[in-house]
Amino acid sequence: MIARWLFLLMLFAAAPALAQQNVRVPVEQGGRAVQLAAQLFKPANTALNATGRVPAVAIFHGCGGPGQNTARMAGLLASWGYAALVVDSFSARGLKDICGRNWPTQADAEARAGDIDAALAWLAAQPGIDPDRLAVMGYSYGGGVAMLRALTAKPRDGAVSPARAVVLVYPDCALADSLGPSIRVRQPTLFAMGALDDWTPVSQCKTVIDRIAMGQHLVETRIYEGAHHSFDALGLPVRYLDGVGNRSKPGGCCGAHYGANEPAWKQFVEDVKSFLAKTLAP
Question: Residue 18 in contact with residue 76, Cβ under 8 Å?
């Protein structure tokens, strides 16, 4: 416990003062605009390019909604010089937690992919943010949705997503079944997974990666030994959730392990920092 908090203290000790702002991101749904709640974390001007703008990362939560893990990552990103937008895809739609037997369907995931396009468009329009240095980070169900956008062979409305990089954190790779046998990747994409994950198993993501026909050289994988799903849920011991939906099981039900692995999280932080520094460089 003491070691974990010392590590967190070191991470934030040198961080510049951060500005955090509640914002709304409009997304088109069924002929009307839905205003998604979001939090924008802004750094001190430590990563400006020649235009005086910073790179930005849009963050998408899992089936439980935004949580401490997404806020923690946004704070870290801001301390590294990125703007970070944590998007709440649920509250504006009257949702809170869909991890149980109302597990999101393939159609739900494909509809939510529009949130990614909307968030990137919103970020690209903000003063002080570089529209040419945008990334997407998705967790679990949100990672599966981000994967659909990153690996789709047919971009929405004929336009390629402006994301320059994608980070998929223990993503729901079963959602890629709808993409067909041949997949194309257009931007650097990092898969970060727990070796013991039985909710969104590594094996499913490996199957997806094997189907990539174009751009496989853009894909990086990190597999953390001894780690289960939500290895970044610091302070939460690993436990078994018997009532959660699980696309990796017959009929999509039920049960999975969930909980923190501090060594995995520390390595994950370093891996994300290195990946973004490389892919979002001016």
Answer: no
Q: Give the torsion through C-alpha atoms of 186, 55, 171, 215, to 10 deg.
A: 20
> Angle formed by the axes of helices 106-124 and 141-151, to 10°?
70
**83-87 and 129-139 as β-strands: parallel, antiparallel, unpaired?**
unpaired
Output the six-digit token pair for 198: 């039985």
Dist CA 163 CA 147 (whole Å): 12
| Strand-pair category, 239-241 with 256-258 | antiparallel
Q: What is the 3-state secondary structure (H, E, C) of the chain?
A: CHHHHHHHHHHHHCCCCCEEEEEEEEEEECCEEEEEEEEEEECCCCCCCCCCCEEEEEEECCCCCCCHHHHHHHHHHHHCCCEEEEECCCHHHCCCCCCCCCCCCHHHHHHHHHHHHHHHHHHHCCCCEEEEEEEEEEECHHHHHHHHHHHCCCCHHHCCCCEEEEEEECCCHHHHHHHCCCEECCCCEEEEEECCCCCCCHHHHHHHHHCEEECHHHEEEEEECCCCCCCCCCCCCCEEECCCECCCCHHHECCEEECCCHHHHHHHHHHHHHHHHHHCCC
Distance separating alpha carbons of residues 166 and 136, to the nearest angstrom: 5
pTM: 0.90
Q: Which domains does the chain possess?
A: 16-279 (3.40.50.1820)
- Report pLDDT digits (tens) over 142-195: 999 999 988 874 555 545 557 999 999 999 999 988 888 889 898 999 999 999
